[in-house]
Design goal:
- The chain is 41% helix and 21% strand.
- The protein is of the alpha/beta class and 412 residues long.
- The chain folds into two domains: 166 residues, HUPs (Rossmann fold, 3-Layer(aba) Sandwich); 146 residues, Argininosuccinate synthetase, chain A, domain 2.
- The chain has a five-stranded parallel β-sheet, with helices on both faces. The protein has a five-stranded antiparallel β-sheet with strand order 10-9-8-13-14.
- It is elongated and about 85 Å long.
- It is an enzyme of class 6 (ligase).
- Pathway: Amino-acid biosynthesis; L-arginine biosynthesis; L-arginine from L-ornithine and carbamoyl phosphate: step 2/3.
């Protein structure tokens, strides 16, 4: 049973959420349970973060190494959907929020809390993603944000930390707001808020400068039903595949993205992303689908992929619509198995070879050389039937004087 004297806080270990532990206790009267997940963001160990949460006043600390879960159940769904919001963004933050929300709810149930708190502002997408995801899993839980709802600004944080002698060290504030995980890295705010300002070198961490690449890197990725299972002949887990492609594609400067993005809350924002592994893997997966998906199925899936990306960006991971699209996407992947060879160099991942036992590419149908098995005589009837509606419509246009005007060639 939920205890109205406890709340669960999504805890990162930084100044904001460390101050939030005693601040929430004072403002709400509730004991705080800190929840921290490792989704491949790097930095401090979970044990260090756990001990800091307890030192700041948390009554419990729930920590989880969720890297494999994130890679297998979230990143792979995004890969199968070729998820690129607005055609370029691989949903770095959007796919981590439902996973974090699931563990927040699990901790609330485990420790008997009735409220969940997060550190989002009132302008961003993540507040919606957390709260809609939480409500989708357990609609009885309440959600609050100390920054949005309880006036926890940075100057208040610093004064509060000093007054309460919290065991945290205030470091120099980054000029950017950064969110990162194994699928990629998001960078915003600061001087980037002026869309005329170009990114500087210090914006990037996952990728090297593509203008000065090392020698080109050839990689062969093997997929089984849409999931990478081998790289250059070596078995890999989804997490290992992402990490290796992050390293190799990142060294070539692949996956840098700079766009004006339409946020869910209606604001246009300037966003930088680095997603070397995600971009390289999606490029390879799309090309394998080109080989293995039937024409009409492939056309429909491209539309579904776009809609899936929009739904997930818009906080609908757990919605009935997304679950239905997942079923369609999963069905399309049963023949998406084979190998893709790619060259990684100078900011580009270029497919140079593909092979699959389940490919629909038929050399004997495609070739123009001897051995061609395509019956060209069939094309006469096909064109006749296929063009029939156009011919009937054209005859009507001519009848009413609306035929297409074809100018005669000028003669000198």
């Amino acid at each position: 049973m939920a205890d109205n004297k406890r709340l669960v806080l999504a805890y990162s270990g930084g100044l904001d959420t460390s101050v939030a532990i005693p601040y929430l206790k004072e403002r709400t009267g509730k004991d705080v349970v800190a929840v921290s997940l490792d989704v491949g963001q790097g930095g401090e160990s979970l044990e260090t973060i756990k001990q800091r949460a307890l030192a700041c006043g948390a009554v419990e600390a729930y920590v989880v190494d969720a890297r494999n879960e994130f890679a297998e159940e979230y990143c792979m769904k995004a890969l199968k959907a070729n998820a690129m919001y607005e055609g370029v963004y691989p949903l770095v933050s959007a796919i981590s929020r439902p996973l974090i929300s699931k563990h927040l709810v699990r901790a609330a149930h485990q420790f008997g809390a009735d409220t969940i708190s997060h550190g989002c502002t009132g302008k961003g997408n993540d507040q919606v993603r957390f709260e809609v995801s939480i409500a989708s899993i357990d609609p009885t839980l309440k959600a609050i944000s100390p920054i949005r709802d309880l006036a926890l600004t940075r100057d208040v944080e610093i004064a509060f930390a000093k007054e309460h002698k919290l065991p945290i060290t205030q470091t120099e504030k980054s000029p950017y707001s950064i969110d990162q995980n194994v699928w990629g890295r998001a960078i915003e705010t600061g001087f980037l808020e002026d869309p005329w300002n170009g990114p500087t070198k210090d914006c990037y961490s996952y990728t090297d400068d593509p203008a000065f690449p090392p020698v080109e890197d050839e990689v062969v990725i093997e997929f089984k039903q849409g999931v990478p299972v081998k790289i250059d002949g070596r078995d890999v887990t989804p997490l290992q595949a992402i990490e290796e492609m992050n390293r190799r594609a990142g060294a070539q400067g692949i996956g840098r993205i700079d766009l004006i993005e339409d946020r869910l809350v209606g604001i246009k924002s300037r966003e930088l992303y680095e997603a070397p592994g995600a971009v390289a893997l999606i490029t390879a997966h799309q090309e394998l689908e080109n080989c293995c998906l039937e024409r009409e199925q492939h056309r429909i899936k491209r539309d579904i992929d776009k809609r899936w990306g929009e739904l997930v960006y818009d906080a609908q991971w757990f919605s009935p619509a997304t679950q239905s699209l997942n079923a369609f996407i999963e069905d399309t992947q049963k023949y998406v198995s084979g190998e893709i060879r790619m060259t990684l160099h100078g900011g580009r991942a270029v497919v140079t070879g593909r092979r699959s036992d389940s490919s629909l590419y038929d050399y004997n149908l495609a070739t123009y050389d001897s051995g061609d098995s395509f019956d060209s005589k069939s094309s006469n009837g096909f064109i006749d039937i296929y063009g029939l509606p156009s011919r009937v419509a054209a005859a009507r246009d001519v009848k009413f004087g609306n035929g297409i005007d074809v100018p005669e060639n000028a003669v000198e």
